[in-house]
């Protein structure tokens, strides 16, 4: 009887050890490839776009294009009127070009967002700017300045009693640009003092008071035409 139990135990041990040596197959993790940023092609950045075929006296229809992005199934094309900040988005474009109709004689910014069916992650291209030429125009205003710092709603330290404001823009004609800085504690900004006019720099240090909300904007002039930035705001501690 003891011999039988001994044999049974040996068999069970053999089976168990044999099973433990079996390799458990590895489960391969699915690799999700996120979309890449698209490279913009046309209209080129900071240029005047001349469209020969006009839809009407005030509108032009043309094709905007970008390079195909890796791991991408569709694109969203965003276009903003830089004067009134109105924006339109064309969703789920499956090609790397799209025909649009825009009002002539205005500056626009645009970007492309790459999307994939395999993930919710997206990738957005650089933002480019262009002027859509109008009939008879020989000079175009600078692109509306972009306010860089302080950002909208940012809390700025008042410990030094000063804050540095910075901005950037380009002129599509390559003209020299001068700036006027408007800043105050009311959203209705008054004309700037003389020392804040005809600036040739894109950064300026200004005095500030503690616990105050400031509003600011920048005017860019090329000698013939002018443009304004959006109005920014920041607060001090």
UniProtKB/TrEMBL annotation:
Residues 144-237 form the Fibronectin type-III domain. It comes from the Bacteria. SUPFAM superfamilies: Fibronectin type III. This is Fibronectin type-III domain-containing protein. It comes from Robertkochia marina. The lineage of its organism: Bacteria, Pseudomonadati, Bacteroidota, Flavobacteriia, Flavobacteriales.
């Amino acid at each position: 009887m003891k011999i039988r139990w001994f044999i049974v135990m040996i068999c069970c041990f053999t089976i168990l050890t044999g099973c433990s040596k079996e390799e458990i197959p590895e489960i391969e993790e699915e690799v999700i490839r996120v979309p890449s940023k698209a490279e913009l092609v046309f209209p080129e950045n900071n240029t005047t776009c001349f469209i020969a075929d006009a839809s009407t006296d005030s509108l032009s229809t043309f094709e905007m294009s970008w390079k195909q992005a890796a791991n991408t199934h569709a694109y969203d094309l965003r276009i903003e009127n830089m004067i009134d900040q109105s924006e339109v988005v064309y969703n789920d474009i499956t090609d790397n070009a799209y025909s649009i109709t825009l009002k002539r004689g205005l500056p626009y910014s645009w970007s492309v967002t790459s999307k994939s069916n395999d993930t919710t992650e997206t990738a957005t291209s650089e933002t480019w700017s262009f002027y859509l030429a109008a009939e008879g125009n020989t000079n175009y205003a600078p692109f509306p300045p972009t306010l860089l710092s302080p950002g909208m709603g940012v809390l700025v330290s008042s410990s030094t009693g000063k804050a540095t404001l910075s901005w950037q823009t380009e002129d599509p004609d390559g003209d020299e640009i001068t700036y006027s800085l408007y800043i105050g504690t009311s959203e209705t900004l008054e004309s700037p003092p003389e020392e804040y006019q005809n600036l040739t720099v894109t950064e300026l240090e200004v005095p500030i008071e503690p616990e105050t909300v400031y509003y600011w904007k920048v005017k860019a002039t090329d000698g013939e035409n002018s443009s304004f930035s959006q109005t920014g705001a920041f607060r001090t501690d």
